[in-house]
Amino acid sequence: MISKGQGFTIVDSLDTLLAMGLTDEFEEAKAWVRDELTFDQDGEVNLFETTIRVLGGLLSAYDQSGHDPVFLKKAVDLADRLMGAFKTSSGIPYASVHLGSGRGVPGHEGGISTTSEVSTLQLEFKYLSYLTGDDKYWRVAEDVVMKMKDLDSLDGLVPIYINPYTGQFHGEEIRLEYLTKQYLQTPKTEPVYKEMFDYAMTGVKKHLIGRTIPNNLLFAGEIFKYSPSTLSPKMDHLVCFLGGTMALSSTEGKLLNKTFPRSGFSQDFRIGEELTEACYEMYHQTETGLAPEIVYWVKDKGQITGKNEREHMPGSDSIINDRDGHNWLRPEILESLFYMWRFTGDEKYCEVSSGGYSSIHDIRRKDSIAFSDKMETFFLAESLKYLFLLFGSTDVFPLDKYAFNIEAHPFPIFVPPKDAMKRARDNRAREEEFERAALEAEARAAEMHPVCRDASRLQSWHRHGHHLRTTALFLACS
Fold first, then answer.
1. What confidence tens digit (pLDDT) does each residue in 347-396 have?
2. Quick one: angle between helices 56-64 and 8-19, nearest 10?
3. Angle (nearest 5°) at CA 122 between 117 and 123
4. What are the disulphide bonds in this sequence (predicted)?
5. CA nearest neighbour of 458 among 446, 469, 471
6. CATH architecture, domain 176-413
7. Please, what is the Cα angle at 159 between 154 and 165, to 5 degrees?
8. Which CATH architecture has domain 1-171?
9. Which of 89, 158, 344, 380 is most exposed, with minimal Cβ within 10 Å?
């Protein structure tokens, strides 16, 4: 914690105020940022949360305010302090940073970092490099993704933790995090991000998708690395971003209702629609009309026994445990509804968005609601913004011209600087050279071992996306 605070709520809300035309409130917030906001403080902050909320909020406010220098100056000061988190032996950043000194601080869980967090910093750091002409922010953020790309995965799915000391994945739980926005931010000039996303989507469809009873809803569950054939029906509200992200990737920001008929929608788009429907049912099937933090979808009747029978509402598709019944005003369902409405023009996505919101302890009991004295900043930065956009014109933040970061801060799509383009080409050239060298080495090994000359044995070569992974003399032939 830091003594003076960072004004998370104020900074996170700047572009929402501008989008809604609340000029007086925006000017008041800007004055606070100019006169009161300081990052020269003795305290630790989470790298991910500070990047997406504060750095992202400042950068979006800079763009939306017509490039008011107040916001860029503060953004550069903050980013320079956050850079200390990337000073690790692997280049994978620490989970936190000491603001005053700019020193990286290892995570509290044995020093490891969260995979989703370190791979969700790129939009902000790349955009800052574009604005300042200093590629140091771009390099550290891009290097994280490139290092992760070269690690083993399960059909593009990666574990939830990564070690900043070794650069290796850690833990068993596997989840998907978004990549497609990076591909769209620099208008399709970095295809590696689309390739990584498409590969991960192969894993999602193969390992994470399930169906419920009795309403046959499609959901995205969880698996464990060492038992990938067993799908856990656990689904966090956080996963509800996925439907909209699949729609965004499928369309690349184009409005489908204006370009081709509904029959032309891709399989990924249709899966995204169904996932969004399941997330809506997380709300619709409770007494209060609000979703819990986590549900366990019912895949078969055998789940509804003992304690689960008490926590299952008859006729619903999910089980809500006592510890998971709270609602924190999360925005992920609104994000997906927003994308679906933009792409399809279907009014049903507006109709299901018109309910009220209140942070409460337990959404399962309408007759005994206990309100929480807490409002997260994402309610203003994301939830209200997506609701405002859902009922507004599609000309506001068109999706072929803006990329929203994970906190719903819109950044303009831009052509990356030439040196970044050169690095991307160099990265691709190195990968191709590696693949050629690997193929030649394995071919020579096969020639030396007669048992491997049989073409069928060569199937033990393992490809991960476009990156050929070699084993020591193909273990099968050694």
1. 899 887 765 555 777 777 777 777 776 778 899 899 899 999 998 888 99
2. 30
3. 115
4. 240-279
5. 446
6. Alpha/alpha barrel (1.50)
7. 120
8. Alpha/alpha barrel (1.50)
9. 89
Note if 347 is an active site residue: no
Q: How far apart are CA 71 and CA 34, in angstroms?
A: 8
Number of Cβ atoms within 10 Å of the Cβ of 362: 18
Cα 348 from Cα 390, distance rounded (Å):
11
pTM: 0.79
Dihedral in degrees, nearest 10, Cα atoms 463, 469, 470, 475: -60
Whether residue 214 has a cis bond before it, omega within 30° of 0: yes
Give residue limits of the domains in the chain: 1-171, 176-413, 433-477
**Residue found under tokens 């929203």:** 404
Tell me how far apart the alpha carbons of residues 246 and 111 are, in angstroms, rounded to a whole number: 32
Q: Give CB contacts under 8 A, 24+ apart, made by 25-33.
A: 26/65, 30/61, 30/65, 30/68, 30/70, 30/71, 32/7, 33/7, 33/58, 33/61, 33/70, 33/71, 33/74
Three-class HEC string of 311-376: CECCCCCEECCHHHCCECCCCHHHHHHHHHHHHHCCCHHHHCCCCCCCCECCCCCHHHCCECCCCC
Question: Which DSSP helix (H) or strand (E) runs through 230?
Answer: strand 227-232
Instruction: From 378, 388, 387, select the one nearest 13 (Cα to Cα).
Output: 378
Q: Is 228 left (phi over 0), alpha (psi -120 to 50) or beta?
A: alpha
Burial 109-125 (b: 16+ CB within 10 A, else e): eeebbbbbbbbbbbbbb
What CA–CA distance (Å, rounded) separates 119 from 172? Answer: 18
Residue with tokens 């970095």: 190
Q: Would you say 303 and 284 are in contact if contact means Cβ atoms under 8 Å apart?
A: no
At 146, phi and psi to the nearest 5? -65, -40
pLDDT digits (tens, 9 = 90+) for 304-354: 877 777 888 888 999 999 899 998 889 999 999 999 999 988 889 988 776
Q: Which of 173, 252, 274, 293 is catalytic?
A: 293
219 CB burial (10 A radius; 0-12, 13-18, 19+): buried
The sign of the dihedral angle between the CA atoms of 305, 309, 310, 312 is positive
- As a whole number of angstroms, the distance between CA 64 and CA 412 comes to 10
CB 98 within 8 A of CB 43: yes
> What is the predicted pLDDT for the residue at 329?
87
d(CA 161, CA 142): 18
Residues belonging to the chain: 478
What's the sign of the alpha-carbon dihedral 93, 99, 101, 106?
Answer: negative
